């Protein structure tokens, strides 16, 4: 019994000793310091709940005491969800050997006071949100062996005081924002085993002093900005297992000294600027398992041989400038090589048969080279192959049927070659095949039914071949298919209904074929379908109502087919972002339900038979950037609610029957780049507010009934390329402010009522190239000579105006001009000699006052003018002579008529006496006179006309003669 009491007494004394032992000289215990540290943390998960007065400190969560319970030696609160700053009160826990606060949500800086923990061996603060720089005071921790403060937001330089941590074995500063150089003092860390500096912004060279870290086994400095040459002193690190300098800016050649690293298993120099040849001496790295020299500027031939590097499992040399072929002795049977990546070099020759000895290969990538010839039939010797990438070469011939023996094959990339023939039916044996890329070859024939035996297929891409025939009826057996890309072939027939049973299908591209028929109702099962393109085929009929069940559809392109009926079934997807139904026979109103697709960015319904108005609900499509409703039968005004289309970049409504005024809210769409309202029935004026669209590239309001003047504000459209206002009723002058549209290359203002002169400011539009068309207006004045500055102009039309004066010779400098029309104005003088190649129609209708080829020469024109003046005088003289002669003739005829009348009287009297004999004789005379009158164009007259009628007849003849003469004198001037 006494012994029991003695035991209790000893326990009490021991506990009292612990309490006294953990007391600091100033009387405050570690207990109090830990409570102060706790008060700085936010503890959402209650990890520190037992840090309280009612419990023993050595039992607190994360706290570890020494064996005799006399000191707190370890504090581990890793992954506790703690928030807040690290308290400087840690400095009072001087017995601590380990602090692990990693993987929390701590912020603030690293307290410099931690430098007072002289017994500290491990400081683990990685994976937090700490900021600021590394405090130089950490250099005082002379017993520190592990410093891991990476994966934070720390900045500044790697402090040189790090070199004072002579016992340091692990220095992990990765995944921060450190900059500057690696300090030379790093070489003083003789015991350093692990140096991790990757994923920072370090620059400058690696110091030569790195060779002093004799015990270094792992050196990772990838993903920085370190440059210069790789120091040869690295070759002194004989214990090095891992060297990772990938994604930096190292230049120069690969140091031969790296071949001294006899224990090296991992060497990664990917993504630098190294040049020169690969040193043959690297074949001495017999322990090497992974070698990545890809994405550099290395040249020469491949000198690395798996016959030396017998432990090599991964070799990547892609993205260089390596030439020649792969050595025939590259591989021997029994090698360990499983991954060989030689893509994107300049290797050439036929398929390297030496690789067929690498029977352990699982991944072979020869893509992006200049290999050619036929694929070897012995490919099936690589029986372990899971990935075969031979794309982007010049392989010819057919796909060997032996490909079907590669039963482990998962990915087969043969695209962008010159393979021909059909797909061998043996491909159906590849039960593990997931991805089959054959696009951009010259393959033909039908798609074999055996392909549907490849039940693991997730992606099939045959784009850009010459496959014909119909789709396999059993395609629905590919239950795992996610992508089916058959665009740009010669496939025909309908879509098999079984396709609807590929329920995992996400992307279906059958465009650019000869497919026909209607869409099968089984499409309703394609609930995962995201993209479907059927454009440029001959599909017809209405859309199945079941399409409305496809809620995940985001991109749909059925353009250039023969679909008809309503598009309502496509209005059911709230995920829709792009819908293109251009060039079909859809009809009826545009469904307002499309406005429920809030993420719709592209809607093209042009060239159909839609009627009615644009749904006012479309104003809710705030993400819409492209709206094309042109070439339909849409009517009505543009609803004010459409002003909600704030992100619209292309607004195309041409060739409809819209009415009303062009709304001013269009000027409020800041991102508007193209506005085409042409060929409608818009009235009113051109809104001045359109000048508020700074990104507008094309503005076409042609073929409407707009009136008023062209707003001066259009000059604010400084990005404008095309301005087309032709065929309206616009009046007033051409605004000189258009000179600010310096990017304008097409300007059409023809067929309006514009007046005034051609603004000289137009001459400053130096980018005008396609056309300048001001024809069919009422423009007056002269043609500005400065138009000759438009040296890029290809077409110029100023016809049907009231322009005067000479054609400026400066226009002859328009060397790019291939169409010109100056006809029907009042121009005169000599045209530029460079215009001689244009047709006569380019200059007619200018009052016969233009000269020079193709018209009359100017000297000929002057001669004809003199002839014309002489002809006028001659006509006057001839006219006087004719009038005089006619008068004389008329007087003579009058005399004759009087004589005849007198004789007639006598005959009449005589006839009464003689019985009419003389009367017969006079009838002959009447006939003769009748012939004379007939020759004077009155040939149907049978009786003798009076002298007055004869006079009129003569004057009529004289008039015709005068006109005829006038015509004859004018003909040379035509």
UniProtKB/TrEMBL annotation:
The chain crosses the membrane at residues 875-898. One of its GO terms (biological process) is defense response to fungus. Residues 1-21 form the signal peptide. GO terms for cellular component: membrane. Its main location: membrane. It is found in: Membrane. It is a single-pass membrane protein. Pfam families: LRR_1, LRR_14, LRR_4, LRR_8, LRRNT_2. The keyword Lipoprotein does not apply. Residues 159-270 form the Disease resistance R13L4/SHOC-2-like LRR domain. Residues 29-66 form the Leucine-rich repeat-containing N-terminal plant-type domain. Keywords: Glycoprotein, Leucine-rich repeat, Membrane, Repeat, Signal, Transmembrane, Transmembrane helix. This is Leucine-rich repeat-containing N-terminal plant-type domain-containing protein. The lineage of its organism: Eukaryota, Viridiplantae, Streptophyta, Embryophyta, Tracheophyta.
């Amino acid at each position: 019994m006494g012994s029991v009491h003695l035991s209790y007494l000893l326990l009490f004394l021991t506990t009292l000793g612990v309490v006294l032992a953990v007391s600091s000289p100033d009387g405050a215990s570690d207990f109090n310091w830990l409570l102060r540290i706790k008060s700085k943390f936010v503890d959402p998960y209650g990890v520190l709940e037992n840090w309280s007065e009612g419990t023993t400190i050595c039992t607190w969560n994360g706290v570890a005491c020494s064996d005799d319970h006399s000191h707190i030696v370890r504090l581990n609160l890793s992954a506790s969800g703690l928030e807040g700053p690290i308290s400087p009160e840690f400095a009072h826990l001087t017995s601590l050997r380990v602090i692990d606060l990693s993987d929390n949500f701590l912020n603030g800086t690293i307290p410099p006071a931690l430098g007072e923990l002289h017994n500290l061996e491990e400081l683990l603060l990685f994976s937090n949100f700490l900021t600021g720089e590394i405090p130089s005071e950490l250099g005082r921790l002379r017993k520190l062996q592990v410093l891991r403060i990476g994966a934070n937001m720390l900045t500044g330089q790697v402090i040189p005081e790090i070199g004072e941590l002579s016992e340091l074995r692990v220095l992990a500063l990765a995944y921060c924002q450190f900059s500057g150089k690696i300090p030379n003092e790093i070489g003083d860390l003789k015991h350093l085993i692990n140096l991790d500096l990757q994923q920072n912004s370090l620059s400058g060279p690696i110091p030569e002093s790195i060779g002093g870290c004799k015990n270094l086994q792992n050196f990772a400095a990838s993903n920085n900005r370190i440059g210069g040459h790789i120091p040869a002193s690295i070759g002194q690190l004989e214990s090095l297992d891992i060297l990772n300098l990938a994604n930096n800016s190292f230049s120069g050649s690969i140091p031969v000294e790296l071949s001294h690293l006899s224990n090296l298993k991992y060497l990664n120099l990917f993504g630098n600027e190294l040049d020169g040849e690969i040193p043959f001496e690297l074949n001495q790295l017999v322990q090497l398992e992974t070698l990545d020299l890809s994405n550099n500027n290395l040249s020469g031939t491949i000198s690395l041989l798996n016959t030396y590097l017998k432990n090599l499992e991964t070799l990547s040399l892609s993205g260089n400038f390596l030439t020649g072929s792969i050595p025939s002795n590259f591989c021997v049977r029994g090698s360990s090589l499983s991954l060989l990546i030689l893509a994107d070099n300049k290797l050439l020759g036929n398929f390297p048969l030496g690789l067929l000895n690498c029977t352990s290969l699982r991944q072979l990538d020869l893509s992006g080279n200049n290999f050619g010839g036929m694929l070897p039939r012995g490919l099936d010797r690589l029986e372990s192959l899971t990935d075969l990438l031979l794309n982007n070469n010049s392989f010819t011939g057919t796909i060997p049927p032996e490909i079907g023996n590669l039963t482990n094959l998962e990915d087969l990339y043969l695209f962008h070659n010159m393979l021909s023939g059909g797909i061998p039916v043996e491909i159906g044996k590849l039960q593990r095949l997931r991805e089959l890329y054959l696009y951009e070859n010259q393959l033909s024939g039908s798609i074999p039914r055996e392909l549907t035996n490849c039940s693991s297929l997730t992606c099939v891409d045959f784009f850009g071949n010459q496959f014909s025939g119909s789709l396999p009826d059993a395609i629905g057996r590919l239950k795992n298919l996610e992508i089916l890309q058959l665009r740009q072939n010669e496939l025909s027939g309908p879509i098999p209904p079984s396709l609807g049973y590929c329920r995992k299908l996400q992307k279906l591209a059958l465009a650019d074929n000869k497919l026909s028929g209607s869409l099968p109702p089984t499409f309703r099962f394609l609930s995962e379908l995201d993209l479907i393109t059927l454009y440029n085929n001959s599909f017809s009929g209405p859309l199945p109502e079941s399409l409305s069940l496809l809620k995940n559809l985001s991109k749909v392109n059925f353009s250039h087919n023969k679909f008809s009926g309503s598009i309502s079934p496509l209005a059911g997807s709230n995920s829709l972002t792009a819908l293109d139904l251009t060039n079909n026979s859809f009809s009826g109103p545009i469904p307002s339900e499309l406005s429920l697709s809030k993420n719709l960015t592209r809607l093209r319904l042009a060239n159909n038979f839609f009627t009615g108005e644009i749904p006012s609900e479309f104003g809710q499509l705030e993400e819409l950037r492209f709206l094309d409703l042109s070439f339909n039968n849409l009517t009505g005004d543009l609803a004010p609610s459409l002003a909600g289309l704030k992100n619209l970049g292309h607004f195309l409504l041409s060739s409809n029957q819209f009415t009303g005024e062009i709304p001013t809210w269009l000027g409020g769409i800041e991102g508007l780049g193209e506005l085409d309202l042409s060929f409608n029935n818009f009235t009113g004026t051109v809104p001045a507010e359109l000048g508020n669209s700074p990104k507008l590239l094309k503005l076409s309001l042609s073929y409407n009934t707009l009136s008023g003047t062209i707003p001066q504000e259009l000059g604010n459209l400084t990005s404008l390329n095309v301005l087309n206002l032709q065929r309206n009723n616009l009046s007033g002058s051409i605004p000189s402010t258009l000179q600010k549209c310096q990017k304008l290359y097409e300007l059409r203002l023809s067929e309006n009522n514009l007046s005034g002169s051609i603004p000289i400011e137009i001459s400053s539009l130096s980018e005008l190239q396609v056309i300048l068309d001001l024809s069919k207006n009422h423009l007056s004045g002269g043609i500005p000579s400065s138009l000759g500055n438009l040296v890029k102009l290809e077409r110029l039309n100023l016809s049907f105006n009231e322009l005067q004066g000479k054609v400026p010779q400066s226009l002859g400098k328009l060397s790019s001009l291939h169409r010109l029309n100056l006809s029907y104005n009042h121009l005169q003088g000599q045209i530029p000699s460079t215009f001689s190649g244009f047709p006569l129609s380019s200059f007619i209708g200018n009052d016969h006052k233009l000269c020079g080829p193709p018209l009359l020469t100017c000297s000929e024109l002057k001669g004809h003018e003199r002839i014309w003046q002489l002809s006028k005088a001659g006509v006057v003289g001839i006219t006087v002579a004719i009038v005089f002669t006619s008068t004389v003739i008329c007087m003579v005829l009058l005399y004759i008529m009087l004589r005849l009348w007198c004789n007639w009287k006598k005959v009449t009297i005589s006839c009464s006496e003689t019985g009419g004999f003389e009367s017969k004789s006079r009838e002959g005379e009447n006939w003769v006179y009748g012939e004379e009158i007939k020759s004077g164009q009155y040939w149907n007259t049978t009786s003798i006309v009076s002298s007055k009628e004869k006079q009129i007849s003569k004057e009529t003849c004289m008039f015709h003669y005068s006109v005829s003469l006038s015509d004859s004198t004018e003909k040379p001037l035509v």
